[in-house]
Each structure stands twice: as structure tokens, then as C-alpha cells.
Amino acid sequence: MGLRVLAAMSGGVDSAVAAARIAEAGHDVTGVHLALSANPQSHRTGARGCCTVEDSRDARRAADVIGIPFYIWDMAERFQRDVIEDFVAEYAAGRTPNPCLRCNEKIKFAAVLDRALALGFDAVATGHHARLVDGVLSRSPDQGKDQSYVLGVLTREQLGHAIFPLGDSTKAEVREEAARRGLTVADKPDSHDICFIADGDTRGFLTKRLGAAEGPIVDQSGDVVGSHQGAHGFTVGQRKGLHIDRPAADGRPRYVLSIEPVSNTVTVGPRSALEVTSITCGRPLWNGPVGDGPGSSDGAGSGRGAVPADGSGEFTVQLRAHGEVYPCRFEETEGGLRIEIDRPATGVAAGQAAVLYSGATVIGSATIVSAA
């Protein structure tokens, strides 16, 4: 007997093909598009984001072609609170958030899943490029499109009610299938940037909400080398747009090394000063394979499961979406996690997620607090 599945349809090619595959497999599928903006006309057009008026129409047309019921759910208030306000607050605190990760966690697999289960659905299907094997999250075979990193914050319980129908497909295969199925989104460009920042100007978006506040840009010795209109406009590892008055003595580019929101100070220095090998994290979440390892293996994913207590073994960590992967060792601390990587990483920013892997399998995640 088939499942009752709610297919989240963004209006893009991935979610359309995902819904089509689930319906073709014999499940009872209903499509839903999430209206995330109270004023969608203000969001970018031309398929550049994932909250446009065109997207809702594309999703409806895809549902018609597939032959499934279709609804639009208004999630604008929840999206404003859990994603946009969180994004602004994180920057104000000197951290660098990932809004797509937060949207997956708080909207698609919290608010939507909760409502779906309450309505009698068994699972939520999305067009993410990631694999689920017995409820365990793994990488997509298409490394360039793999989205396991932005799903690494989901609990075992949430993953247990998720379906990723594109798990074994490359993006090229998905587009070819969409064309064969007569879905008009087959050639639709992928979304880019941050969907709720219409013009792509993150600094301008934050300044409108946090206000301009002049502060110093200093080098590692504390000498003032420039000024800015708000520390919230910078992120660790940033090179462009610094507007520094004095060049470095060696003539080399400077990068943002740290952001201090209380004193509104941005510290810059050479690229070599960005290199870190030790990362301190908070809020660890274990959502990988359940085995005989220590710790609880409850549905919330709080237990370690099959992972050794000392973090020994062949593990890797990814520190940002589409970023490099580093061999690592880790150990749990009081309420947190310390990760040691085998070669230096640069641009590691507080507020980002550190997602741990065993081979292609996600074993857990944590939020980066600091690095050295």
C-alpha cells in the first residue's frame, strides 16, 4: 500500500521531478508550494530566487502535468521569524548564518512536516540532492549539487519522515527526465543567492534593518587602517569591499579576520592569519547510523549511535555549503564539540554549520562557535 506523501514544490525542476517520481511509484501525492514572502512581488524575478510569483505558477503547472492536487501554504510569518529575523540577529552578533540551512531546519522539516503529520500524511518529499538509506542521510552522487550539508541539521525523527527521490540522480539526469515528462521547468535556471534579498545586496539589506554605525577597521597590531558603516556588513574571510585607506606593508591583500559587534570593530590581516586547524562548536546533533556506540540513540538524534566515543576513525568535516571537505578528529566537550582538522582551513566563520561525515554518510552536525 502506498504512502500519503506531501511533495514540497518550489517551482523548480528538482522538486517537480521529485513529485513526479513519487506519484509514479504509486503513492498518494499532494503538491504544496510554500508562500514565504508577505509581499512576493518584492522578491526577485526571472527564476533567481525561490519565493517569486513565477515560482508558485510554475509549481502549479507542474502539479497539473503530474496530475496531483496542489495547494499553497502561507508560511510567510514563520519564515520572517525563523529565517529572516534569525539571519539579521546572527549578523548583528558578529556571526555568519546560512539561511538555506535554517529554512530546511525550521520551515521545510519542522513547520511543514508538523502540519503534514497532523493532516495524516506519512512523509514529506523534496527535491534535495541527497540520499536516504534506512533513514540515514548521505551525499548525492552529483558532488557539484550535493545538498547533504544543508540537511545535516535535521534530526533522525525528521529524516525518518523525509523522502529525497532524486538521491541517486545527477542534475543533468533530472533535467532530461523533466523534458521527457513535459515539465516546462526542465530548463529553468537554478536559484542562487539569498531568496529574500531581492537585489543580492546583503550589506544594504542588513543596514536597512540594523542601521549604519561607523566603526574602525584595524590591523592585527590595532592600528586603524580604514572605517566602515557597520560591522554587520562583513564576514570572516571577506576580501572585497573593505575600502581600506592604507595598503599593507607587503602590498598583499587583506582579509577580514574577526568581527567584534560590541565595539563595532573589524580586524583585517593576511590570508595566512585565516588558517585554522581547531574548531570549537556548540549544539552537537547526532543523526547518523544507530549502533552500539555510547549515548542515547533516540529519535531526536541526540545520541552518538555508532560513532566511537573519542571521535576516532575515518571522518571528514564540511564547514560551509559547497566548501572543501577536511579529514578530522573530534571529541565532545561540555555541551559542545571540538574538531581538529588535518590541514588548515580558511574563512571558517562562527554561525556556520560543521557537518561530520563517515565516507559519504552524515553522522552529525554542530554550530561553529570559534576557530584557531
TrEMBL record:
Domain of life: Bacteria
Highest classification ranks of the organism: Bacteria, Bacillati, Actinomycetota, Actinomycetes, Streptosporangiales
Function: Catalyzes the 2-thiolation of uridine at the wobble position (U34) of tRNA, leading to the formation of s(2)U34.
EC assignment: 2.8.1.13
Name of the protein in question: tRNA-specific 2-thiouridylase MnmA
Subcellular location: Cytoplasm
Alphabetized NCBIfam families for the sequence: PRK00143.1 (NF001138), trmU (TIGR00420)
The reaction(s) this protein catalyses: S-sulfanyl-L-cysteinyl-[protein] + uridine(34) in tRNA + AH2 + ATP = 2-thiouridine(34) in tRNA + L-cysteinyl-[protein] + A + AMP + diphosphate + H(+)
Gene name per UniProt: mnmA
Domain tRNA-specific 2-thiouridylase MnmA-like central: 204-269
Location of the active site: C103 (nucleophile), C195 (cysteine persulfide intermediate)
Principal location class: cytoplasm
Record region (Disordered): 285-311
Pfam families linked to this entry: tRNA_Me_trans, tRNA_Me_trans_C, tRNA_Me_trans_M
Protein family per UniProt: Belongs to the MnmA/TRMU family.
Bias (Gly residues): 290-304
Keywords, ordered alphabetically: ATP-binding, Cytoplasm, Disulfide bond, Methyltransferase, Nucleotide-binding, RNA-binding, Transferase, tRNA processing, tRNA-binding
